[in-house]
Design a protein that fits this description.
The complex is a heterodimer of chains A (about 250) and B (about 260).
Chain A: H1 3-27, E1 37-46, E2 54-64, E3 71-73, E4 80-83, E5 88-92, E6 95-99, E7 104-106, E8 112-114, E9 119-120, E10 135-139, E11 144-148, E12 155-160, E13 164-165, E14 173-176, E15 179-181, E16 187-188, E17 193-196, E18 198-200, H2 206-245
Antiparallel strand pairs in A: 1-2, 3-18, 4-17, 5-6, 5-9, 6-15, 7-8, 10-11, 11-12, 13-16, 14-15
Helix pairs in contact in A: 1-2
Chain B: H1 2-26, E1 36-42, E2 45-49, E3 66-69, E4 72-79, E5 86-88, E6 95-98, E7 102-106, E8 112-115, E9 121-122, E10 128-129, E11 136-137, E12 146-151, E13 156-161, E14 168-172, E15 175-177, E16 185-188, E17 191-193, E18 202-204, E19 213-216, E20 218-220, H2 226-258
Antiparallel strand pairs in B: 1-4, 2-3, 5-20, 6-19, 7-8, 7-11, 7-15, 9-10, 12-13, 13-14, 15-18, 16-17
Classes of the chains: A alpha+beta (about 250), B alpha+beta (about 260).
Chain lengths: ~250, ~260
């Protein structure tokens, strides 16, 4: 008797999660390197008796859309965008994390850091340090960083940015601040091209999210209406059954 | 319903974005102004189903979890120290820096401020001062009988004195550079001050290693690009609108719940 209501509420719960994920995508419309997420639903079959079978809705997982975001030029020589797959390794308090957001700066010691101050690492997990008088910084497509320092116009190599590639990008866990925690150990990508003076924008598309949002809220209203009808049905069933026995 | 608060973080972030953009546009003709950019990061994630948790006794694992992000937060507004265009003013005390380096200014409270705005004037003692009257450091005093003053690209200030054939040297302009100029804090009036993030200043003569040259009779105009700023403004405004739509939709869903009978 309760089956239908329970199935419907399980669907409503899942729609809540879907709405939250859409809200997070929209909130991150302008977040550098952000990848939009979608919710996948699954059903869960319950057979309390051989005759009854209920299919509950389960929000199974969120999938990250790893499509390339568009590039925006910023004019900051330390902003780097990755064309193709790959992530920059970053040293955080909790260990090495990976990020697509290449909006870098120098700290007071001349280390390359992210906008929140974590040190950016090279392919060998070493910190990239610039000489104090580094100028005319150039970052090549392969990540080689060169700069002029000291007297004269001699260009010296400062280090090399590395983009790491993962076999299974979906297995990366978002830990916030644009960082991902890796489960597998990645390899340096051979195909990724780095672009200086640009950052990768979030790949959230406003129109798509708005459309999805409307779908979710309509589905939610539909479910609510069904719930109401179901409750009316139950109420009238009770009334009628009561009449017969009385 | 997390969507409500997530949408709110999005609106707040876009509001800050618009504020940064409007400050850039407001300073479009401010001498030596460097544009800023707001940088955002996604906030914490809530794990409803953790990725990699076992799904059977045979060791199968969940390939991707159910994670819900909790919105966005602004993380930095960083200054883009790109060289601005140099505009010729023909005022002999206007000096532009082409390349790295800041002028050092003695503030009334005894601290040193750094600026790219080299529109200097003379005070009553003939000293080079900013439009606010704060002296350039090291001090350069122009004698009252000077006919003309010239400043070389290396910062040497010489004056032609009435009656003398040789030029009189008045000292040199010195520049300061920082390893992380984006770490300087803006205190208004075109001034920046040193912080722990900027590192300590290295001083040197213009045109020496690691420093730019100075150009007399010119000022560095702001490096704000109107087209880019307006485009960013449109993007920010639309993003703000969409976040408010999310809040509205979340609100409608909640009202659906409250109307259940």
């Amino acid at each position: 008797m309760q089956g239908a209501s329970l199935v419907l509420t399980s669907y409503q719960d899942s729609l809540h999660a879907a709405m939250d994920v859409i809200a997070n995508n929209v909130a991150n419309l302008n977040t550098t390197g952000f990848k939009r997420e979608t919710v996948a639903f699954d059903s869960y079959l319950v057979q309390p008796t051989p005759k009854d079978s209920f299919e509950f809705v389960l929000d199974e997982g969120t999938y990250r859309d790893i499509a390339q975001g568009s590039f925006i030029t910023t004019g900051n020589p330390l902003d780097v965008a990755i064309q193709g797959s790959g992530y920059f390794p970053v040293q955080t308090d909790a260990g090495v994390r990976y990020t697509r957001s290449g909006s870098f700066q120098l700290d007071f010691e001349g280390n390359l850091v992210t906008s929140s101050g974590e040190k950016v690492l090279d392919g060998g997990n070493q910190v990239i340090n610039f000489p104090s008088d580094a100028r005319d910084i150039l970052i090549g497509g392969d990540g080689t960083i060169s700069a002029k320092s000291g007297a004269g116009s001699a260009v010296t190599e400062v280090g090399r940015l590395a983009a790491f590639e993962f076999k299974d990008e979906q297995a990366l866990v978002s830990v916030g601040s644009g960082f991902y925690r890796a489960v597998e150990s990645p390899e340096v990508s051979e195909t990724a091209q780095l672009m200086q003076g640009a950052v990768e924008q979030s790949n959230v598309k406003g129109i798509e999210e708005m459309t999805r949002m409307i779908e979710v809220s309509r589905a939610y209203q539909r479910v609510a209406r069904l719930l109401e009808t179901e409750q009316q049905r139950q109420a009238s069933a009770i009334k009628r059954l009561g009449k017969i026995t009385g | 319903m997390r969507a409500l608060s997530i949408g709110a973080t999005g609106m707040q972030a876009q509001q800050l974005n618009v504020e940064v953009i409007s400050n850039n546009i407001a300073n479009i003709s401010t001498t030596g102004f460097k544009r800023s950019r707001a940088e955002f990061q996604d906030m914490l994630y809530e794990n409803l189903r953790r990725v990699g948790s076992p799904t059977s006794d045979n060791g199968t694992l969940l390939p991707s979890g159910l994670q819900v992000g909790l919105g966005v937060r602004p993380v930095a507004t960083y200054r883009i120290n790109e060289q601005g265009n140099v505009s010729v003013t023909d005022n002999e005390y206007d000096v532009a820096v082409n390349g790295r380096g800041f002028f050092q200014i003695d503030l009334p409270d005894g601290t040193t401020a750094y600026t790219r705005a080299g529109s200097f004037q003379l005070d009553e003692d003939g000293q080079l001062v900013t439009p606010d009257g704060y002296p350039l450091s090291p001090a350069i005093t122009i004698p009252a009988n000077a006919l003309s003053v010239s400043i070389s690209t290396a910062g040497e200030v010489t004056a032609e004195i009435d009656g003398a054939t040789a030029l009189q040297s008045l000292g040199s302009i010195e520049l300061a550079s920082f390893i992380n100029p984006a770490g300087l804090v803006a205190i208004g009036d075109n001034f920046l001050t040193e912080t722990a993030a900027s590192g300590s200043p290295t001083t040197g003569a213009p045109a020496s290693a690691g420093f730019g040259t100075v150009i007399q009779g010119s000022v560095e105009v702001s490096n704000v690009d109107v087209v880019t700023e307006i485009t960013n403004l449109i993007t920010a405004q639309r993003a703000y609108e969409m976040n408010s739509r999310v809040i509205k939709a979340a609100d409608e869903m909640l009202s659906t719940v409250s109307q259940l009978r």
